[in-house]
Amino acid sequence: MDNLAKKQTINQEVKAEQKRKKQLIQKRLFTPGEKILFLLFALTICFMGAKIISTQAALYEVSKDIQDVEAQIQEQSKINHDLEVQVSEESTYEKIGERARELGLELSERNIKVVQPE
């Protein structure tokens, strides 16, 4: 009988061990709901990363456009300054008198009137 009792206890231990293995095998690391949440989180991270990159690209384009416009403004202001200098040079009395003589006009003392500021 002793031998029969040992076989039964060994069989019970084997069955108990098999049940434990089945329980360990059935236990999952993540549930399906958790897997879905992880997937949604990963997709959200990817979407936000793409959104940030596209926003940075748009900001870069706008910044580049602003710099181009500023360069054009500086160039135009330089041209305007050069033209102002040219106008001031051409508007001196000597230049005006010279140009009038070229066009056939003469300076007559009786046609000159002096205006006094009030």
Structural write-up:
There is one protein chain. The chain is mainly α. It has a domain at 21-100. The chain has helices at 2-26, 32-90, 93-102. It is rod-shaped, with a radius of gyration of 48 Å.
Can you give me a brief rundown of this structure?
The chain is 80% helix and 0% strand.
Percent of sequence in beta strands: under 5%
Task: Estimate the global geometry from the Cα principal axes.
Answer: rod-shaped
Helix-strand topology string: HHH
Total count of helical runs of at least 4 residues: 3
Report the average pLDDT across residues: 85
Please give the oligomerization state of what you see.
single chain
Main structural class: mainly alpha
What is the radius of gyration?
Answer: 48 Å
Distance between the termini: 143 Å
Taking pLDDT < 50 over at least 5 consecutive residues as the criterion, the unreliable ranges are none
Helix content: over 70%
Task: Report the major sheet.
Answer: none
Give the tally of β-strands: 0
Transmembrane segments: 36-54
Keywords: Cell cycle, Cell division, Cell membrane, Membrane, Transmembrane, Transmembrane helix
Membrane topology: Single-pass type II membrane protein
Subcellular location: Cell membrane
